[in-house]
Design a protein that fits this description.
The chain is an alpha+beta fold and 152 residues long. Helices cover 19% and strands 46% of the residues.
Length: 152
């Protein structure tokens, strides 16, 4: 098996085709990793969530890391790491266009609200949904791929 760096074009192709990623954030020197569904557009990843630990931590420290993988078997895989910055897209006049943009990208895919919209315990019923959209501005994107010998 050989491992090689992916080109920028290869990284973009994988991120564009993917939907499920792992988002890493940290607060007070404690890391936290969760799965997210996302949509890619230009220099941004867009996602949806309910309030919780991930949102609280990203509000405190907007620097995040996202990993997107494609694994065929142990000798054939691709993995991209995105380093970026969290930006909440509140339901306000200032962010209205960005919220609609995020929703329009995400709604193209079935179950786009999972896992961000699901919580493990029953939640109290509230008058308005506390959901939110957010973006991750991509500052850096790198990737690696593995292929079996002779498959380069």
């Amino acid at each position: 098996m050989f491992v090689r760096e992916m080109s920028e074009e290869e990284c973009i192709a994988l991120v564009s085709a993917g939907r499920l990623a792992r988002l890493a954030c940290s607060k007070d020197d404690q890391p936290y990793v969760v799965p997210i569904w996302y949509a890619y557009a230009g220099k941004f990843l867009y996602a949806f969530s309910m309030p919780g630990r991930k949102i609280e931590w990203m509000r405190a420290n907007p620097r995040v890391c996202v990993q997107i993988d494609e694994i065929s078997d142990r000798q054939h895989w691709r993995s991209v790491i995105v380093i970026g910055r969290y930006q909440e897209l509140p339901d306000s006049a200032q962010w209205h266009h960005e919220c609609l943009h995020a929703w329009s990208l995400l709604k193209k895919y079935p179950y786009w609200w999972e896992p961000g919209g699901l919580k493990p315990l029953p939640q109290p019923v509230v008058g308005a949904s506390p959901h939110l959209f957010y973006s991750i501005h991509i500052d850096e994107m790198t990737g690696r791929t593995a292929v079996a010998e002779g498959g380069i």
